[in-house]
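Bug #77: duplicate submission created two jobs. Keeping one. Sequence:
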Amino acid sequence: MAELLHNWITERAERRPDSVALVLDQNKITYGELDALSNRLAGMLKETGCERGDRVAFLIPKSPAAIVAILGILKADCIYVPLDPSGPASRLKKILQSCETGRILAAGPVVSLLDELLSDNELRSSIEIGWMDHEAVQGENFKPTFSLADLSAFSRRPLAYSNTRFDPAHILFTSGSTGAPKGVVINHSSVIEFVEWATRYFQMSCSDRISGQTPLHFDLSTFDIFGTFAAGAELHLVPQELNLLPNKLAGFIRQSQLTQWFSVPSILNYMAKFDVVGFGDFPSLKRLLWCGEVFPTPSLIYWMKRLPHVRFTNLYGPTETTIASSYYTVPACPEDERAAIPIGTACHGEELLVLDEKLRPVPRGQVGDLYIRGVGLSPGYWKDPEKTRAAFLPNPRSLDPAERIYKTGDLAKIESDGLVYFVGRADSQIKSRGYRIELGEIEAALGSMNLLQECAVVALAINGFEGNKICCGYVPLPGSEVAPTTLRKELSKLLPAYMLPSGWLALERLPRNGNGKVDRSKLGEEFKNNGTASP
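Kept job's structure:
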């Protein structure tokens, strides 16, 4: 087992230096080149004052330069903090202030964003910029201290490391209920444990060509990167602009001859709705993995019918438990479009617990709060002991006071088959007209009707007997129109009247956050700002 994440690169560079590690468009970088560049960057970072445990941020679109930055930061015994190049400067500023970084590695079309970010005098005076391209670009508010061209002065040989596997590798910032991003600290060991399990389970090898679809500030990308390097495979970075072009996304899978695809379900659902996958398509593809949200069963059926040669696996796990904590490989194409797909069983070294409000196990078939324990747990939120204590609780079943469980905020149940089933978010369970309602159930019913490209259901708090107004934002199928009256009529065939949305809004596209998930808070604002159409 690797001691540190970047050890895999060093090992592959020693064994097969000329094998391809990264591919983007027509550009390819070998393991030897990647190892040498990241070693030189680590030398530069140490030479310019970076010390063990320092947080180094990077603001680079998904590219080989970003991967070099990640590895170089780790090799310098530092902690990498990915920043979203499409994120607003105000949010990035909060992240930089929270993690107290003194350096940003940048490249690509981010000059105006950096200028806006560093227009703050205090921030500008405390942060140095390293430009990860051969020619440094100077902005109005920053001048890089070095560029990629300067790295040639440093040795391509590995540096001596001081970190251990229990030191932090990165901090991933997620949305916080108060509006301030929360920094989830992830140790080397947690990523290594998952990657070692996953490469064994999925039988990954050096002949694999792995997708790099998710943004680098999203935790799924951690498996894309280090799963590839652990297997000695090729990482094919998916250009961000393809995510809104389903035909070209399908073309990318074919042309790159990918053997593994990993993404959030919304991408797969999008491709299914536009019918861009042919029967027997993607002959090289062996595995299709998804994580992050529920994959509608009708879309899963679409994919499985067209790709009978592919193995389909549902992964589940919040950022705080490192990539994924459970898995379920679908044994056969579901026959019922309303069949629930379980999140399955725990990955090696993990345990899923379904508990009641007193942290007691609930009987099989009953819904409870989902907790996770094991090797993937984060140490907690960066410099936020209060939030850490609220989410990471002492394990009530252990005599060891140091053993913890993480409260996911999800509702789940264990059925008679012994598998865990996701029921919904605890905070998406609402009460309307005296009834408890799971919004996810309404979305699943809408998805089974095959009338919409995509949809999302939110609840707006109102005064009065109802307590909450259920609202549905939806995108009709391409070239079609569907009225709220039609949707309500068809939905009434599947759900009781008290679960039917009373607010409807047709949209060209559902609002999404930087990770590609539906942004439900923005959708709620759409309803508040634009009003709702009632059938």
